[in-house]
Design a protein that fits this description.
By secondary structure, the protein is mostly helical. It has one domain (9-126). Helices cover 62% and strands 0% of the residues. It is globular.
Length: 134
């Protein structure tokens, strides 16, 4: 008999869609969908890194969507973030978050959070599950 397959990124995205819808219903139109997604992803990261306090995306939400790590990070950290994001899309969200948590580097985790939010936001836009932030 085959074992139950582990979570995949498609499953994770469906779960994020559900959480996003719940938050959207609870908050009404107080925040953009990208801000709500940022909060949802931040909460998932906090489950693995309780000391992580995500920055509010208010200033970032109007910034253009980018999947590049911030320029102030070293090339080593940028490469590491890109590796972790690849793990998420090759395996699943929890696996990638665990990998980011292993670093213990809050700058890396914060940049990872922002980049992951942007990547997931782009995927949800493509699936027409959310509306683009104007």
């Amino acid at each position: 008999m085959a074992e139950a397959s582990p979570s995949t990124i498609q499953h994770d995205i469906m779960e994020l869609e559900r959480l996003l819808e719940e938050k959207r219903a609870a908050l009404g139109h107080e925040k953009s969908e990208k801000e709500i997604l940022h909060e949802v992803v931040g909460e998932k990261i906090q489950k693995h890194v309780p000391q992580y306090l995500p920055q509010t995306p208010s200033a970032k939400s109007s910034a253009p969507i980018t999947t590049e790590p911030p320029s102030y990070l070293s090339q080593e950290l940028k490469d590491r973030i890109n590796e972790i994001v690849k793990i998420i899309f090759d395996k699943n969200l929890d696996e990638g978050i665990r990998e980011a948590a292993k670093s213990g580097n809050m700058a890396l985790i914060d940049a990872f959070h922002d980049i992951l939010t942007d990547e997931l936001y782009n995927q949800l836009l493509e699936k027409k599950k959310i509306d683009k932030v104007e």
